[in-house]
Write the structure tokens for this entry.
Amino acid sequence: MGVHRVLSFLRQCIPPGKKIDTHRHPETDEILFLQTGTGRVHLGGSVRVAHAGATVFIPAGTSISVDNLGSDAINLVAIFSAPGFEDFMRDTSVREGEKNVPVSQAEEDAVEKKYSHAVMYQ
């Protein structure tokens, strides 16, 4: 029997003036598709401006960040070559209608350690 590979998919909105912090996915390739907006994409040692309709391929282990350069939100989709990051997102997100309660540095460090196979922030 063959190896089962499952893709993971998410949507994200980056408001004007906000960004996706620098991070990398050690074991997973990622593809970003910008649906709207304009952003400065830092990919490894390269920096490029990407507009709506752009597709960015991020090989496993490569650092990535995205700064919103425009006055409109960047709406994007991300596709990951293996599952794992979505569990990190579930554990670090607040469900709609719930109060956003700040976590301690120890709690943040524990979550980052738990999901270091899926994402590492710099």
